[in-house]
Q: What sequence folds into this?
C-alpha cells in the first residue's frame, strides 16, 4: 500500500487498483482527498499493471460532500472540477464502492465513475440546498441523466436521501454488494474487465431527459408544490433552474449554468447563514464542562405528568421512537381526552400516508395512562407538564421525590419558572432539570434543556443524548425568567405591543415580520397561543390591549376572534373592531398616533432581540451566540437563511445595531433599547458575536 497523501492511499491487487480515502469523520473532499484522488488516478493510468480502479472510503461513510470548512477561504489546488474531470476521462474503468452516505460532492464524485456498487445500508443525496447551495460539481447535470429530471428535482430541492434499493431501481447504482464491500467492488471490477463492458459516461446519456423536454410544465409544477415550504429561500429555485438547464442545454452548457448559479449562491448572504447554521447546530451539542466520558443514565421508560397540550405532544415523541410512556392525570376525563387527541393526531398522519395503520397501533400501544402518580415509580425519566403554577409544580416534585426510583431524572416542561426553586423541594436537586419542549411538541425540533444550579452532569449528558434519540435539537441554557427563547420573544412582543399604540396596526406589524421570513408575526402568534394565557377575568382592569380584547371575549383563534377575525378555515383578516379598540386605547393612554415605517417596525421588533441575546450571553445563560440562533431557528421558525438573531446582528454590523438602538432609546426612553455592554464592546472593537 502506498500513501498518496495523508488522506488517501493506493494498493494494487492483481491488476485492480484500490484508492482508499481516509479523512475522518465523514471523508469530506478536503484538499488532501482531492490531491489523493487526482494523483492516484494519474498513477493508475501510468501503470500498465493496473486495469481498473476502485474508489472506496475507510471509516463510517463514503465521501459525504465538499469540505464545508474550506468554503469562503482561498482556493486550494487541485480543485474538485479538474479532479473529477480526470476521473471521468480515465481510460481505465473506475468503480465507486459506496457505504454510509454519498452526499453532495461525494455523490458527484461517484457520478463521474463508470460504475457504482454499494452495500445495503448506503444512502445517496444532494443536500446542498440545505446549505443554501446547489451541487456545483456537475451533480445537477448528471443526476437527472441517471434518475430522470422528476426524481432529480425532488432530490435537489429537498436534499432528501434515497436508500440502496431505490438507488438500484433508479439506475443510480449497478449492484448492491451483500457482504464485504471492498471484495465485492473488486469482483465487480473484474466482471467489467472480463465482460469488456464499455467505459460509459453519464454525461453522454440523454434517454431520461427526452420526456421532460416535451413536458416543460414539470418545472412549474415543482415550483408550485414547494412554494410555501421554501418561501424566501433562493437555493431551491436555483436548483430547479439547473435541472431545467440539464434538460434543455447540451451538457457543457448546462455545467456552465450550474457553475454560474453556484457561484451566485456561494457568494450570497443566504448560503453564508446556512453554512454558519450547519456548524451552529453541531456546536450546540458540545457542553464544555461535561466531558465526553460522563456516564449516561439508561432511559427505557418515561413518565409524563399532565395530558394537556404539551404532555400529549411530549408523549408522542417517545412513542415515535419506540419508548414506552405513561401519562398521569388527576381526572379520568382529562386523561381520556389527552389519549384521544394523541390517537387522532396519529390517525391524521396515517390518513396522509406518512405512517401506516400498524404504526398508529404500535405507537398508541406504547402510551398508557394512569390517575396514580405512584405508577411512575419505575420510570427512568419523568417530565412534568401541568399548569404553569409554581406552587403546583413544587407540590408535584415533592411527591415525585418520594415516588421516583433512585437515579431517575425529574424534569419540568415549565416555559419560564425557576428550575432551582422546583429542585429545592426535593432531596435530590441533582436529578432535576428543565426540558422545555415547544408547541406543538411532537413537531417543533427544539428542546431547550434548562440546567439548574445543581443539575448533575450525568443528567445533562443523558438529556442531551436523549434529545437526539427523540429527534430533537437540544440547546443547553441556564435559569432565568423565560430562559433563552421566551426571554427574547418577550422583548419582541413588548415592542410589537408598543408599536400598535404609537400608530401601527397588528396586521402591519405582522406583515413586516412575515416578509422578513418568520412563519407569522407577533399578533398572529398571540392569537394562535390564546390571548388569555396568564390573563384573569376577575382581576383584569383593561390595562393593556390584550386585557381589552380578552374582556371583549376576543381570546384568539380558539374563540374565532382575537387581534384578527377568523373565518371557518381559520384564515385571518384585519378586524375593524380591533382597530377601533386600539385607537380608543391609544387615545386613552395619551399616545399621539403617527405613521410608522416598515423599517422602524422591523428594527424595533428585532434589534431588542439581538440586544437581549447579548445580555443572555453576558450572563452566561447561553453558552455561545450560535446557541441563541439554534433556539430561534428551531423553536420559533426564524428563517435559517438569516442564520438566527445573533448572526443577523453580525451580518448587519454590531456598530449599526448599537447606533440604531441608541436612536430608539433616545426617542422612546425604553430601557430595552439601551445597548448591552457586551454588544457595545464588540462594536467598538469592530468584532461580532461570532468572534467570542
Ligand atoms: N465538511 C466538513 N465537515 C463536515 C462535513 C462536511 N461536508 N459534514 C460533516 N462534517 C463534520 C461535522 O461538522 C461534525 O464535526 P464535529 O464532530 O466537529 O461537530 C462531524 O463531521 C460529524 O458530523 P455529524 O455530527 O453531522 O455526523 P452525523 O453522523 O450525524 O451525520 C452526515 C453525518 C450525514 C454526513 C452529516 O454530517 C451531513 O449531513 N453532512 C453534510 C453533508 C453535506 O451537506 N454535503 C454537501 C456539502 S456541499 C458540497 O458538497 C458542494 C459540492 O456540490 C461542490
Ligand atoms: P394544559 O392546560 O393544556 O395541560 C395541563 C394539564 O395538566 C391538564 O390536562 C391538567 O388536567 C393537568 N394537570 C393539572 N394538575 C395536575 C396534576 N396535579 N397531576 C396531573 N395532571 C395535572 O397546559 P399546557 O399548555 O400543556 O402546559 C403545560 C406546561 O407546559 C406549562 O408549564 C406550560 O408553561 C408549559 N409549556 C406550554 C407551552 C404551550 O405552548 N402550551 C409551550 C412550552 C411549555
A:
Amino acid at each position: 500500500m502506498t500513501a498518496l497523501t495523508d488522506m488517501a492511499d493506493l494498493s494494487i491487487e492483481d491488476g485492480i487498483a484500490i484508492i482508499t480515502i481516509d479523512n475522518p469523520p465523514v471523508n469530506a473532499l478536503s484538499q488532501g482527498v482531492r490531491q489523493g484522488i487526482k494523483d492516484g488516478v494519474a498513477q493508475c493510468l501510468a501503470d500498465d499493471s493496473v486495469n481498473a480502479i476502485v474508489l472506496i472510503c475507510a471509516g463510517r461513510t463514503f465521501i459525504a460532500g465538499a469540505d464545508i470548512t474550506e468554503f469562503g477561504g482561498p482556493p486550494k489546488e487541485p480543485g474538485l472540477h479538474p479532479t473529477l474531470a480526470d476521473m471521468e476521462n480515465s481510460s481505465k474503468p473506475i468503480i465507486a464502492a459506496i457505504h454510509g452516505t454519498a452526499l453532495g460532492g461525494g455523490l458527484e464524485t461517484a457520478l463521474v465513475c463508470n460504475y457504482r456498487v454499494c452495500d445495503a445500508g448506503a444512502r445517496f443525496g444532494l443536500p446542498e440546498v440545505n446549505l443554501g447551495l446547489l451541487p456545483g460539481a456537475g451533480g445537477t447535470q448528471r443526476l437527472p441523466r441517471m434518475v430522470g429530471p422528476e426524481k432529480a428535482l425532488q432530490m435537489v430541492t429537498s436534499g432528501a436521501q434515497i436508500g440502496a434499493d431505490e438507488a438500484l431501481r433508479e439506475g443510480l447504482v449497478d449492484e448492491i454488494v451483500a457482504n464485504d464491500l471492498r471484495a465485492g467492488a473488486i469482483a465487480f471490477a473484474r466482471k467489467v474487465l472480463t465482460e469488456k463492458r464499455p467505459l460509459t459516461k453519464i454525461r453522454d446519456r440523454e434517454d431520461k431527459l427526452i420526456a421532460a423536454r416535451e413536458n416543460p410544465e414539470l418545472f412549474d409544477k415543482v415550483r408550485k408544490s414547494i412554494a410555501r415550504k421554501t418561501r424566501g429561500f433562493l437555493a431551491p429555485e436555483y436548483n430547479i433552474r439547473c435541472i431545467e438547464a440539464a434538460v434543455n442545454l447540451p451538457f457543457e452548457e448546462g455545467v456552465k449554468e450550474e457553475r454560474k448559479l453556484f457561484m451566485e449562491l456561494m457568494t450570497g448572504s443566504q448560503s453564508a447563514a446556512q453554512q454558519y447554521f450547519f456548524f451552529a447546530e453541531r456546536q450546540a451539542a458540545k457542553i464544555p464542562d461535561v466531558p465526553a466520558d460522563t456516564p449516561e443514565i439508561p432511559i427505557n421508560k418515561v413518565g409524563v405528568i399532565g395530558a394537556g397540550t404539551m404532555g400529549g405532544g411530549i408523549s408522542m415523541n417517545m412513542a415515535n421512537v419506540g419508548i414506552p410512556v405513561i401519562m398521569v392525570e388527576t381526572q379520568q376525563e382529562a386523561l381520556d381526552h389527552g389519549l384521544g387527541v394523541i390517537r387522532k393526531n396519529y390517525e391524521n398522519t396515517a390518513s396522509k400516508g406518512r405512517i401506516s395503520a400498524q404504526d398508529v397501533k404500535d405507537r398508541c400501544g406504547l402510551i398508557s395512562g394512569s390517575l396514580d402518580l405512584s405508577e411512575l415509580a419505575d420510570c427512568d425519566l419523568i417530565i412534568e407538564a401541568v399548569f404553569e403554577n409554581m406552587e403546583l409544580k413544587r407540590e408535584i416534585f415533592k411527591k415525585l421525590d418520594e415516588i421516583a426510583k433512585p437515579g431517575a431524572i425529574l424534569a419540568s416542561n415549565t416555559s419560564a419558572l425557576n428550575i432551582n426553586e422546583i429542585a429545592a423541594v426535593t432531596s435530590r436537586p441533582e436529578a432535576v432539570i428543565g426540558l422545555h419542549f415547544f408547541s406543538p411538541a411532537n413537531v417543533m425540533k427544539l428542546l431547550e434543556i434548562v440546567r439548574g444550579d445543581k443539575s448533575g452532569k450525568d443528567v445533562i449528558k443523558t438529556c442531551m443524548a436523549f434529545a437526539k434519540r427523540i429527534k430533537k435539537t437540544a440547546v443547553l441554557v441556564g435559569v432565568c425568567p423565560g430562559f433563552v427563547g421566551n426571554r427574547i420573544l418577550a422583548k419582541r412582543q413588548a415592542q410589537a405591543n408598543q408599536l400598535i399604540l404609537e400608530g401601527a396596526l397588528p396586521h402591519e406589524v405582522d406583515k413586516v415580520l412575515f416578509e422578513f421570513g418568520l412563519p407569522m408575526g407577533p399578533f398572529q402568534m398571540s392569537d394562535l397561543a390564546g390571548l388569555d394565557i396568564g390573563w384573569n377575568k376577575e382581576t383584569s382592569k383593561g390595562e393593556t390591549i390584550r386585557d381589552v380584547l380578552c374582556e371583549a371575549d376576543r381570546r384568539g383563534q380558539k374563540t374565532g376572534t382575537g387581534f384578527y377575525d377568523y373565518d371557518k378555515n381559520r384564515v385571518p383578516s384585519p378586524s375593524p373592531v380591533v382597530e377601533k379598540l386600539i385607537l380608543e386605547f391609544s387615545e386613552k393612554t395619551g399616545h399621539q398616533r403617527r405613521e410608522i415605517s416598515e423599517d422602524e417596525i422591523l428594527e424595533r421588533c428585532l434589534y431588542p432581540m439581538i440586544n437581549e441575546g447579548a445580555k443572555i450571553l453576558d450572563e452566561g445563560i447561553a453558552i455561545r451566540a450560535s446557541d441563541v440562533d439554534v433556539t430561534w431557528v428551531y423553536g420559533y421558525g426564524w428563517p435559517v437563511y438569516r442564520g438566527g438573531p445573533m448572526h443577523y446582528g453580525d451580518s448587519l454590523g454590531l456598530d449599526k445595531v448599537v447606533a440604531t438602538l441608541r436612536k430608539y432609546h433616545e426617542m422612546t426612553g425604553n430601557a430595552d433599547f439601551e445597548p448591552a455592554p457586551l454588544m457595545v464592546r464588540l462594536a467598538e472593537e469592530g468584532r461580532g458575536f461570532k468572534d467570542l
About this structure: The longest helix spans residues 598-618. The pocket of NAI (ligand 2) is lined by residues 305-311, 328-330, 334, 385-388, 392, 396, 413-415, 437-439 (CB under 6 Å). The chain has a mean pLDDT of 97. The chain has 28 helices and 20 strands.
